[in-house]
Design a protein that fits this description.
The complex is a heterodimer of chains A (116) and B (114). Chain A has 116 residues and is mostly beta strands. Chain A has strands at residues 4-7, 10-13, 19-25, 31-38, 42-51, 54-57, 64-66, 76-78, 87-94, 106-107, 111-115. The model of chain A has no long low-confidence stretch (mean pLDDT 92). Chain B is an all-beta fold and 114 residues long. Helices cover 0% and strands 52% of the residues of chain B. Chain B is globular, with a radius of gyration of 13 Å. Classes of the chains: A mainly beta (116), B mainly beta (114).
Chain lengths: 116, 114
Amino acid sequence: NAGVTQTPKFQVLKTGQSMTLQCAQDMNHEYMSWYRQDPGMGLRLIHYSVGAGITDQGEVPNGYNVSRSTTEDFPLRLLSAAPSQTSVYFCASSYSGTWELGGELFFGEGSRLTVL
Amino acid sequence: QQQVKQSPQSLIVQKGGISIINCAYENTAFDYFPWYQQFPGKGPALLIAIRPDVSEKKEGRFTISFNKSAKQFSLHIMDSQPGDSATYFCAASTRYSSASKIIFGSGTRLSIRP
C-alpha cells in the first residue's frame, strides 16, 4: 500500500534555484493537491487538480507551477526559489474531491524544503 | 468569513487526562467538519468527522462536540495516552463542494506527559 509518495523528503536550495517536488499516488484518485505547512498557519492550498490535464490555483499559488499529464503524478515546480518558500510541502489526493462521495484527503509524508 | 480559528496552539496533558481542542468558524454554509491527526514526520490523516445534523460523534476515545448556534466544534480525547501526542487540525467545508474548498485551522500541538 504505497498511497501517496513524495520525493525528495528533504531539499536545500539557494535563492533563485529551481526544482521540482514529485508526487505520485497509486489509488486511482482523480483529485490531487499541494499544500504548504508553516508554523501557526495550518495547511494552505497551493494548487490542485481534478483530473489529468486540469489544474487550478489555490490560496497561495505565486512562485509555483503544476501540471497533470497522468492520473498518478502531480509535480510541483518552484520556478525561482525564495527564502519565503522555506516550508514543509504536502501532496494530497482524494477519490472524488467531494465529501459525500468519499472525498477524504490522503496525504504524503511531506517534503521539507529550505531555501537559503 | 472563510477562517477556521483553532485553539490552543499547544497543549500539554497528563496521561489519563482529557485533551480538549476548540475550533470556531464564521461561514454558516459549512456543513462538514473533519479533524486530521499528524504525527511527527508524517502527513495528516483523517481522524474523525462530523456533520451538523448531530451534536456529538464518538469514536473510541475521540469525541467531536458540535454547537451549531455558537458556530463552534471541539475535539475531546478521553484517557489521553502518550501515543496521542501529535498535531491536530480541525477543518471545515461543505459536503458537495470540491476538496479544494476545505479550510484548515492553524493546528494544535498536543503532548501527553507519561
